[in-house]
């Protein structure tokens, strides 16, 4: 099989790359070891948050005000684009950062001051979910539905997408898969969790962790339209349109056991999530679903976005917040492969 570009990984960033490549007139083959959005892209909490993984005041300290603010504004543009692409899968009614301690409340104030100083949308919030920040431009979405919609459109535009097709060997001239070879001029590896296994040269720079979630039956015990995250973002939840609660977090409290690529729910995280559901959110509705996803983390919170082998670009390591940044990386990599440049390179590159 021949193509101009092969995309390995059919989650959010991979599908963004596929569509950008099609826009640039390329013949595209996309493969995935599982199914479309079968990894973290379809198993995440459904948050659409602007900015990088770090809160804005922390990002300013780490990468500088100019770069942190530019990235934040770029993600705002991406959020608008995503909503226009799949309006039926996205609700943008804001997110809440709820403080769980006096120290965190002070940190919320510091984040608010930094965002307002840089002209970014944020306001103080006090309501039934708690006290902290409200970011009015954020939202929630149905990640699996969105990815499936993008995959169907890509196929309709001429992309050849293959599920259950792992990449056994990758080079800038092709990809070897169990059932055959894909000859191409470039490869984009858009894999978050397990990226260091697909491309071993990234070992030590990106590390896979398990993020776990649960969901309840529909309930009216609480009512919120916001994405809610607390304890510095370690816990996060949203209320689905039918009233069900989807809740994730507690990774840090389970220790080294959550640094794993086993994407199955497990103790002690599930029990801790259920305690949080009952005692903090105040929901007694029965738990109906439990699941997990494998995601990549980097030490500085910035994603992997680079040419790791000649004509092989690697994307991933979104540190748990890849829904928006991953889409930016996917299109930027497609632009680099085809044109050799992208307007996003200066704040994505290390």
Structure in words:
The chain is α+β, with helices and mostly antiparallel strands. The protein folds into two domains: 150 residues, FAD/NAD(P)-binding domain (3-Layer(bba) Sandwich), CATH 3.50.50.60; 138 residues, 2-Layer Sandwich (D-Amino Acid Oxidase, Chain A, domain 2). It contains ten helices and 20 strands. The chain has an eight-stranded mixed sheet, sandwiched between helices. Strands 9-2-1-13-20-19 form a six-stranded mixed sheet, with helices on one face.
Q: The CATH topology of the largest domain, please?
A: FAD/NAD(P)-binding domain
CATH C-level label of the largest domain: Alpha Beta
Q: What's the number of extended β-strand segments?
A: 20
Tally the structural domains: 2
Strand content: 25-35%
Provide key terms for this protein.
350 residues; alpha+beta; FAD/NAD(P)-binding domain; D-Amino Acid Oxidase, Chain A, domain 2; 2 domains; 10 helices
Itemize the secondary structure elements and their pairings.
Layout: E1 5-8, H1 12-23, E2 28-31, H2 40-43, E3 47-48, H3 56-63, H4 65-85, E4 90-91, E5 95-98, H5 102-117, E6 123-127, E7 130-135, E8 139-141, H6 143-156, E9 160-162, E10 169-171, E11 174-177, E12 180-183, E13 186-190, H7 195-198, E14 206-216, E15 227-230, E16 235-239, E17 245-249, H8 269-281, E18 287-298, E19 304-309, E20 312-316, H9 322-339, H10 345-348
Parallel strand pairs: 1-2, 1-13, 2-9, 5-15, 13-20
Antiparallel strand pairs: 3-8, 4-8, 5-7, 6-7, 10-11, 11-12, 14-17, 14-18, 15-16, 16-17, 19-20
Helix pairs in contact: 1-6, 1-9, 3-4, 3-5, 4-9
